[in-house]
Design goal:
By secondary structure, the protein is α/β, with parallel strands linked by helices. The chain has 2 domains: 188 residues, no CATH class; 195 residues, Rossmann fold (3-Layer(aba) Sandwich), CATH 3.40.50.300. It has 17 helices and 6 strands. Strands 2-3-1-4-5-6 form a 6-stranded mixed beta sheet, with helices on both faces. Strand 2 and strand 3 form a beta hairpin. The radius of gyration is 25 Å and the shape is elongated. 40% of the residues are buried. The protein binds guanosine-5'-diphosphate and magnesium ion. Magnesium ion binds next to helix 4. The site of guanosine-5'-diphosphate has 17 residues, from helix 4 and helix 7.
């Protein structure tokens, strides 16, 4: 089913309606071929289960390290928040709390970043620390450090590994390190050499003190597109199980053009599931009801795309504030249909499809289904839903790229 994406790629219904219907025809053929012996209802039930598990997938990320190292700023950066945004973790403050603080992602409350108490105390004991913060709750640990390496980092890393969990060593504020190095040695300054020295030093310290195969990432919380954040993202993608990987990816801010592309291809792999569920709603006997459910499911999915690409009103308002631009300027580059236009657009296409199956004169619309059977009706619905979603996904991803560019201008 995943191979469907090649059939509809890059087809714009407004500028190329014939192309849209031809793509839908191919999708329909594929559907009929796949389900000629039945089984679409079971496949739809499985697809629905998959979509539900995705919705219920939880990810708990522990962020630990010394006070002042940039933990809270890192948490804000991952949640797409600036320090002054509502709900942001407070930064630049001395922590007094001894309890982990939960920071659910604003659009994905199932992704929770935990700001753990600082590990700086002289009598730091990793074992009792991990017990106190309820270590089994977390899927993995991020140990945040800045400026100096401390033995508490290595002790904690070792204990996390002993407990059979993963840790990632994140060295924040490298923008400052680079600025200092440039100031101190303007002639000999080479950015990559400075970064490599910091990386190697942290790796060596961790290894020398017993951590196995430590992974070190250098980053600036002010600019996730720079340094090793993209590598950290890729590493996490490889390490965490499939559904969590997807949820994590979708929850990330659009920090680079590549991440937007990645979100798009990850979502593409799910379109057939949504379409199949929507198609199998359509073969229910009460057509009026099924059309409403079918369209409802599509709209819910499409509205979710807006969130996944940070194009919802809340995300746009935050981005506008961070970029120091009026939100209208960002909205002006969005071309995909929104609100009432979106509903009208989806309904129109779906009504054409229902009209086809009711009149049995499909040739008038899609000119390709000879006799409308239940399976053919489902196939028609699948093909329309898939093409609508695929078309919309392309547009929303392109919008996200334009909005990102505009914000950076
Ligand atoms: P925490 O105590 O570990 O939660 O650290 P905070 O996130 O509160 O950060 C401590 C200070 O470092 C604050 O003044 C932040 O603005 C600053 N800071 C955090 N991350 C970075 C970074 O990547 N680069 C720079 N230059 N400053 C940072
Ligand atoms: Mg803090």
């Amino acid at each position: 089913m995943e191979s469907l994406s090649a059939l509809t790629k890059g087809i714009d219904i407004e500028s190329d309606p014939k192309g849209f219907f031809n793509a839908a025809l191919k999708v329909h053929e594929k559907f009929m071929e796949l389900f000629k012996d039945g089984g679409q209802a079971e496949a739809a039930a499985k697809a629905r289960e998959d979509l539900e598990s995705l919705e219920n997938t939880k990810l708990n990320i522990a962020v630990t390290g010394e006070t002042g190292s940039g933990k809270s700023s890192f948490i804000n950066a991952l949640r797409g928040l600036g320090a002054e945004d509502q709900g942001a973790a407070q930064t630049g403050v001395i922590e007094t709390t001894t309890k982990p603080m939960a920071y659910p992602h604003p659009s994905y409350p199932n992704v929770i970043l935990w700001d753990l108490p600082g590990i700086g105390a002289m009598d730091f004991r990793p074992e009792s620390y991990l017990q106190k913060v309820n270590f089994s709750r977390y899927d993995f640990f991020v140990i945040v450090a800045s400026e100096r390496f401390r033995s508490s980092h290595a002790n904690l890393a070792q204990e996390i590994q002993r407990m059979e969990k993963k840790f990632y060593f994140v060295r924040c504020k490298v923008d400052e390190d680079l600025a200092n190095a440039r100031r101190a040695h303007p002639q000999a300054y080479v950015e990559e050499n400075v970064l490599q020295r910091i990386r190697e030093h942290a790796r060596k310290c961790l290894r020398d003190q017993g951590a196995i195969d430590p992974q070190v990432f250098l980053l600036s919380n002010w600019d996730l597109d720079q340094y090793d954040f993209p590598l950290l993202e890729e590493t996490l993608e490889k390490d965490v199980p499939h559904l969590q990987r997807l949820v994590f990816l979708l929850s990330l801010p659009n920090f680079s053009p590549e991440i937007i592309e990645k979100k798009k291809s990850a979502l593409r792999g799910h379109l057939w599931k949504i379409s199949l569920v929507s198609a199998c709603i359509n073969v229910l006997p009460m057509r009026g009801v099924s059309l409403a459910c079918d369209v409802g499911l599509l709209l819910v999915s499409m509205i979710a795309f807006y969130k996944q690409f940070s194009l919802d009103d809340d995300s746009l308002a935050k981005l506008a504030r961070q970029a120091g631009k009026p939100v209208a300027e960002l909205k002006a580059v969005i071309v995909s249909p929104q609100g009432e236009d979106l509903i009208r657009d989806v309904l129109m296409k779906k009504i054409v499809q229902v009209g086809c199956s009711l009149t049995h004169s499909v040739e008038q619309c899609f000119y390709f289904v000879p006799v409308i059977s239940t399976l053919a009706a489902a196939g028609l619905s699948f093909a329309t839903s898939y093409s609508i979603l695929s078309n919309f996904l392309e547009k929303v991803a392109a919008d996200a790229q334009r909005v990102r560019k505009k914000a950076l201008e």
